[in-house]
Design brief:
Blueprint: H1 9-14, H2 18-29, H3 48-63, E1 67-69, E2 75-81, E3 85-91, E4 109-111, E5 114-116, H4 124-139, E6 147-153, H5 161-169, E7 177-180, E8 183-184, E9 188-191, E10 193-202, E11 210-212, E12 222-226, H6 232-245, E13 250-254, E14 257-261, H7 276-288, H8 291-300, E15 321-329, E16 333-342, H9 348-359, E17 362-369, E18 372-373, H10 379-392, E19 400-402, E20 414-416, E21 419-420, E22 434-436, H11 437-460
Parallel strand pairs: 3-6, 3-7, 7-20, 8-21, 9-19
Antiparallel strand pairs: 1-2, 2-6, 4-5, 5-22, 9-18, 10-16, 10-17, 11-15, 12-14, 13-14, 15-16
Helix pairs in contact: 2-4, 4-11, 7-8, 10-11
Length: 461
């Protein structure tokens, strides 16, 4: 038990589902469901691992007595009942893992109250908690008078093509109310606009071509390069000088190969990470005397935009963010791939124009999603807050406005409701991601209560 564990009617009902829910989560985590281009086909649009994960959760739902639509294998729709729609959106895909895990990233190892593994918190653990909340309500006869759908997607981490297919190709209807367990408790009423742009500079002779980084929404944590034209003595000397200026940097030199180890962090919070790619470019800039590169390091590496006038704010948001998740060099041009998150009042193209004006180079906006803001005084916010507060007795925590993007943006009348509890750092997108089992179990009761409260709104309308 932890500080959020309370004895309530729903928590007592949920207890009998704990062993089965835990077993289901272990099996789910053991599926490596990173999007895999090498195994993509018509019936595996996001690769074999994602297909296996979507199949697993669908077959589990059938076993639990729900209806399933496989949705062309873009997502798995789990449903029950008839009438006005209440939706839940979770995802089965996960971000890539590094070699720096202590626990097996797809091993679902349990130590004390914690289960370690990629997806335990983002988003397989919350998905299983929500599914067993539905099972509880079905068994108690509380899924009557409305239709509930739980849609488990396969591409949330790389653009949400799963829900785009669900709504725009399959033309599935939008819900009256919906939530996604892909954020924080108590709930998230506002999310920043999420944009991607490239920032390109012509820098011939920098090095041989290279490409660093796997995902745009994670701070680039590993970067390596071979500099055959520079003596090992000079490389070591430069390393010594660099560590004098940046004592926290992790630099390794083997022969002519230089490797920087940074710290991964979620794209919405780049200031909690350390960008290995930017550090390595800064190191090279000192060796090759390229002041432009040194300037880019100082402008970008904090990730908050303050050094180039990009730290926008609004009534709902106190900051903006710029995460470089990928860096590519073709022998002539150096390109940063930047995940930018902005308040609802800022036009993404204007923000890109500011970057180009202040830093030079060519800036191209690749994609953008609108910010999401739901009235914090709305009925939906009120009843979900009521469910959270009554299940946890936490009357202090307030509705949140965040930089992270959730599935809520892909639907309508939808917000993020859990599953990270206040004060928790579950290392989402980082090494050693985990979930507290007490938090996992508590979420079942909270989601059950929340669905019942939303159902009351539906029936009242």
């Amino acid at each position: 038990m932890n500080e959020f564990t309370q004895k309530t009617a729903y928590s007592e009902l949920a207890k009998k589902y704990y062993p089965e829910a835990l077993e289901s989560l272990v099996n789910f985590i053991k599926i490596n469901s990173v999007n895999d281009e090498s195994t993509v086909s018509d019936d595996k649009p996001f690769g074999q691992g994602v297909r296996d994960a979507l199949d697993y959760v669908g077959n589990l739902a059938i076993k639990l007595g729900f209806n399933v639509d496989w949705c062309d294998h873009y997502c798995t729709e789990i449903s029950y009942g008839e009438g006005e729609l209440i939706d839940i959106y979770a995802h089965a895909d996960v971000v890539p893992v590094s070699k720096d895990w202590i626990h097996e990233p797809f091993g679902a190892q349990i130590e004390g109250d914690n289960m370690y593994g990629r997806g335990t918190s983002d988003d397989k653990g919350p998905a299983i908690a929500a599914l067993y909340a539905l099972k509880l309500l079905k068994d108690e006869g509380k899924l009557e008078g409305f239709k509930v759908r739980m849609v488990v997607g396969g591409n949330e981490e790389l653009g949400s093509r799963c829900l785009e297919h669900y709504f725009n190709v399959m033309h599935k209807p939008y819900p009256k109310y919906g939530f996604t367990p892909d954020g924080d408790f108590p709930l998230i009423y506002a999310e920043k606009a999420i944009c991607t742009y490239t920032h390109t500079f012509e820098i011939p002779g920098l090095a041989n071509p290279f490409e660093w980084g796997d995902a745009l929404n994670i701070v680039l944590a590993d970067a390596s390069i071979t500099l055959d034209d520079i003596s090992t003595e000079k490389l070591e000397q430069a390393r010594y000088i660099y560590l004098e200026n940046y004592p926290q940097a992790n630099i390794k030199i083997e022969g002519h190969t230089v490797t920087f180890k940074g710290k991964a962090s979620h794209g919405s919070l780049p200031w909690f990470g350390s960008n290995a790619g930017l550090h390595l470019l800064n190191y090279i800039a000192r060796l090759r005397h390229i002041p432009e590169l040194r300037s880019l390091f100082h402008l970008y590496h904090h990730g908050d935009g303050k050094r180039f006038g990009g730290d926008y704010k609004s009534d709902n948001f106190t900051d903006s963010s710029y995460c470089i998740g990928k860096i590519k060099y073709d022998g002539e041009k150096l390109t940063f791939y930047v995940n930018m998150r902005l308040p609802e009042t800022i036009n993404p193209q204007d923000a890109c124009d500011n970057v180009a004006e202040k830093m030079g180079g060519e800036v191209k906006l690749l994609s953008s999603s609108e910010a999401l803001v739901i009235d914090p005084k709305s009925d939906m916010v009120r009843v979900l807050m009521d469910a959270y507060q009554k299940e946890t007795h936490d009357y202090t925590s307030k509705p949140l406005a965040i930089g992270g993007g959730t599935y809520a943006k892909e639907s309508k009348n939808t917000l993020a409701f859990g599953s990270a509890f206040p004060g928790r750092d579950n290392r989402i997108h980082d090494n050693e991601e985990y979930i507290s089992l007490d938090d996992f179990y508590n979420s079942i009761a909270i989601y059950a209560h929340g669905i019942v409260n939303l159902a009351k709104l539906v029936k009242k309308a």
